[in-house]
Write a structure and sequence with these properties.
With 578 residues, this protein is α+β, with helices and mostly antiparallel strands. It folds into 3 domains: 46-191, Rossmann fold, CATH 3.40.50; 197-390, no CATH class; 398-436 and 456-539, no CATH class. Helix content is 38%, strand content 14%. The protein has 23 helices and 16 strands. The strands form 4 sheets. A 5-stranded mixed beta sheet has the order 2-3-4-1-5, sandwiched between helices. A 5-stranded antiparallel beta sheet has the order 8-9-14-15-16. The protein has a 3-stranded antiparallel beta sheet with strand order 7-6-11, with no helix packed on it. Helix 3 (47-56) crosses helix 4 and helix 20 (407-422) packs across helix 21. It is flat and about 90 Å long. The N and C termini lie far apart (92 Å).
């Protein structure tokens, strides 16, 4: 039995590694469901069941899946075809058509960007979409199309803009409603969050990631496939086995206790969510599969591990930019949140003392502890205020929760963000004496020792966040927001809005705690922050305030008025009596 299981495990590992684009074994498993391994490791997202009902119930006659390359559009349609009982479809082929038992004709185009035989991609799209150009089709048909956003826009912009179909699709792509053509379902897969979503009770769930990890390890067959590793002589130094004990499914031999496994997975998901919340990178299914394969299995073979060849552990493969064969924007983005960029004196002394090697590696120790030390252990070592988490990640949980906050909680967040915003450029302590308003510094054109500022009411600010939604089917789950907005509305009704991604949200809350941001950082890294403050100042109609270092305990209130000075009208600042 053992002899039979070992080749099966090795074959599975080779297939798993092919899901990473930078694998030495090729990357055949990065596209569609054209192999047994791809079908075995496919993870449904919930959209498949909703689309199945929409097809069989004839809710939509034309279904278009849009998104980035790697979003899983083709694989989703192939999975849907299987659920309809239509057998396997292949990405390399042209459009395929089936007739269901009830007479419904279902036609698939798995890649709207591809040509086929003698037909160009434009010609194939013309033929595929012809029944819907002027409205609902006259036949009992449903067409399903997978296509990238750019390719669809290109097709729509080639003399087809005036048709009812084109007008409807353009409105939907712009997010302007779906009521004009209810027979069309357009779904943006790049609007969904694969790294977490909120359920009806407001709990953040990670069902997709949990299922994906379980599938990569073999799911129900994991116990059989990985049993050989329990007696392998290379086990003590095998980085693949070490990762499996912390991230593998419940039935995997040698797995750590459930609390440690759940914590390790949570920490990995938290890092992926942090990248999502940066708002700079859309995480596709291909990105997630490839990145998880690299982190959990690496690119080296079992033979290399058995021979004791050095290979970085999983915690370094997550965060260290120097690990071998590393590629892709997601792995690059994870290095931004490297726990080694943080520091805690008590924790770091403990981690250094616990290392056995002659040359202590604090960076690696912090990364390992991030995954393998439970929160209660961290508190015992470093105290209640100890932080062993992602760099610049202290406030990620709060950003996730913004759409769920009560009015009172949201006001508290607004106060913290507003105070942080007002401290982007420090003012004298007297400027911060009022609790119902926020000061913002004014820079005169001529340098002066006098410090000027304006004050705006705190209740003029509001924080907003929207759920992610692929649209069209009204899902009962809400995707993880990747941004929030801080809005300011002045007395004249003018509104300025500041986009808050994870990094800026973190900076504002750190400023509120007393962190100082240099002018160079403000100008180079957060120019939009300075622009937002300038908009608030420009839209201000009230009084100004001034302070001079020779009179440290006094603040002057100034009023801007227009006067005729004999040679024209000029704006003049005058002191308002106390």
């Amino acid at each position: 039995m053992t002899v039979e299981r070992r080749p099966r495990r090795l074959e599975w590992l080779r297939d798993v590694q092919k899901a990473y684009p930078g694998s030495r074994r090729g990357n055949i498993e990065t596209h569609g469901l054209d192999s047994d391994f791809a079908r075995q490791t496919y993870v449904a997202t919930g959209l498949e069941s909703q689309l199945l009902d929409a097809v069989t119930g004839r809710r939509f006659r034309l279904i278009i899946l849009c998104g980035n390359a790697g979003d899983g559009k083709t694989a989703l349609l192939q999975n849907l075809a299987g659920r309809l009982g239509l057998g396997n479809t292949r990405r390399q082929g042209g459009p395929v058509e089936y007739r269901l038992a009830d007479g419904l004709r279902v036609r698939f185009n798995l890649d709207g960007s591809a040509a086929w035989e003698e037909g160009s991609s434009d010609l194939l799209l013309d033929q595929f979409l012809a029944p819907f150009v002027n409205g609902p089709p006259s036949e009992d048909i449903v067409h399903l199309l997978a296509i990238n956003d750019g390719r669809l826009l290109s097709w729509l912009g080639r003399g087809r803009e005036a048709t009812p179909l084109a007008r409807s699709l353009l409105r939907r792509l712009d997010g302007n409603g779906t009521d004009d053509a209810p027979h069309i379902g357009l779904f943006h897969l790049n609007r969904r969050s694969l790294v977490g979503e909120f359920d009806a009770t407001g709990q953040l769930t990670t069902g997709f990631l949990d299922a994906l990890l379980d599938q990569l390890y073999g799911s129900a067959d994991a116990a059989t496939m990985w049993q050989k590793c329990g007696t392998c002589v290379a086990q003590p130094h095998c980085p693949v086995f070490r990762a499996a004990t912390y991230f593998g499914p419940d039935n995997l031999p040698g797995r750590v206790a459930a609390p440690k496994q759940q914590h390790a997975r949570h920490q990995l998901y938290r890092a992926l969510q942090a990248v999502h919340q940066l708002g700079k990178l859309h995480l596709t299914i291909r990105d997630l599969r490839g990145t998880l394969v690299y982190i959990l299995f690496g690119t080296a073979s079992c033979d290399a591990h058995c021979k004791g060849k050095p290979y970085p552990p999983y915690w370094d493969r997550v965060f260290d930019a120097q690990t071998p064969d590393r590629q892709g924007e997601l792995l690059a983005a994870l290095t931004v949140f490297d726990p080694a960029r943080e520091a805690d004196a008590r924790l770091d002394r403990y981690l250094l003392a616990s290392q056995r090697q002659r040359r202590p590696n604090l960076a690696g120790a912090r990364r390992q502890a991030y995954f393998e030390l439970l929160p209660e252990t961290v508190a015992q070592i470093g105290g209640k205020t100890a932080y062993l988490g992602l760099a610049r990640g202290r406030h990620l949980d709060l950003l996730q929760q913004v759409p769920l906050l009560s009015d009172a909680e949201r006001r508290s967040v607004v106060q913290r963000l507003g105070r942080g915003l007002s401290k982007a450029e420090l003012l004298p302590p007297l400027a911060y004496a009022k609790t119902d308003s926020l000061p913002f510094r004014i820079h005169p054109r001529t340098p002066t020792d006098t410090v000027f500022w304006i004050e705006t009411r705190l209740d003029a600010f509001a924080v907003e966040a929207a759920w992610l939604d692929v649209g069209g089917l009204g899902p009962d789950r809400r995707g993880l927001p990747h941004e929030a907005f801080l809005a300011h509305r002045n007395a004249r009704g003018q509104t300025a809005r500041l986009r808050l991604t994870a990094d800026l949200f973190h900076v504002l809350l750190e400023l509120e705690r007393g962190y100082q941001l240099s002018a160079a950082t403000l100008d180079e890294t957060f120019a939009h922050l300075a622009l937002f403050i300038e908009q608030i100042i420009q839209n201000h109609d009230g009084d100004w305030y001034a302070w001079h270092p020779t009179q440290e305990d006094r603040v002057y209130r100034l009023r801007l008025t227009t006067r005729d000075l004999g040679h024209g009208f000029h704006q003049v600042l005058t002191v308002v009596p106390d």
